[in-house]
Amino acid sequence: MPASTRRWELDALRGLMLVLMTSTHLPTWFGIPTSQPLGFVSAAEGFVFLSAYMAGLVYTQRARRDGVPAMRRAFLRRALIIYACQAASLLFLFTVIAALGMTLHQPAAANLMSFYLRDPVTGFWTSLLMIYNPPLLDILPVYIVFMLLSPWILGHALQRGWKYVLWGSVLLWGATQFGLSRVLYDGLVAATGLPVPFGETGAFETFAWQLPWALGMWMGATHAGAPRERRPAVPKWAAYGALGVACAFFLWRHTTGLEAFPGGDPLNALFDKWHIGPLRLLNFIALLTVTVYFGPWLKRHLPRMRVLETMGAASLPVFCAHLVIVLVALAVFGESNPSRPIWFDPAMFVFSIAAMYLVARIVQAGGPGKGPRRRRGGAGSLSALS
Question: Is 232 left (phi over 0), alpha (psi -120 to 50) or beta?
Fold first, then answer.
């Protein structure tokens, strides 16, 4: 997207999501306390939704300007770039991290690739086919699948509307709550003898996570080229109701911890991250509604965070940099250890964010339109989430 049409606040939000993911994944003593800081919703939901919103916005404009076939080709090119990043990350994990982990005898590194260490040949080729997805490297395959399917979904929605797309997405999410993925996996194993265990196919349930992606695509496509005054407004009663729900979940999260109920309680499935349980979805929609309604006011009154904007404008390279940093930290230092000096974990976090920012600046310097600087006014002044 050209620099003049970038939404700087959207870049800042994506940058914030990247910082929160890094804080969660780094092996520090404050990783768990800072995880899900706004309730029972993680940075992953926000990052997926924001990515989908940007895709819906940009590729709808592309379809209207150059036609649907050009839009589909642009989606495919982006998917290939993301796949190249995934393949490079896997290669890094299976070589550098494997060597470091084995040399330094770090269980944290071995746990990341336990299936690969048991069966390297199968682990390698199935990971390239996005069947075997090691921890931390299991979100990009979901993103790639969405990018491959989105041009056909978007093309359909632009011609016939979003009604059936959104209802189908909700039904698919609902089926996932009752084990759709496991049923399909068992059928695939019975038909092909697939040697990858279900638990090694990735923690993120693709059929559940398509819902925030579909919602983001729909909102981005709806906002494409539409002035804010012509967009459907969130009613005041709905906004303040959502604020009350969000505050209740915020207090609940910081009272009970990451689990809403004591460990082992089956009700925790309602908040499950990997399936996006019903109450987790409610928490996410409440936060989204609050952001849409109060976004313009926040944009006028909060100071701009240029560091976050810079990282968010180069979100894919920065995300990959975060993966490299976290993998190296786990292979060299292992899990969080209370015997470390008190300054060590904060220093690791600050160094990691600085390295990610440096990557973003390098990307910014490498081509036009990739940095956070934008002209005021025009399309770039419209709020991406309002």
Answer: beta
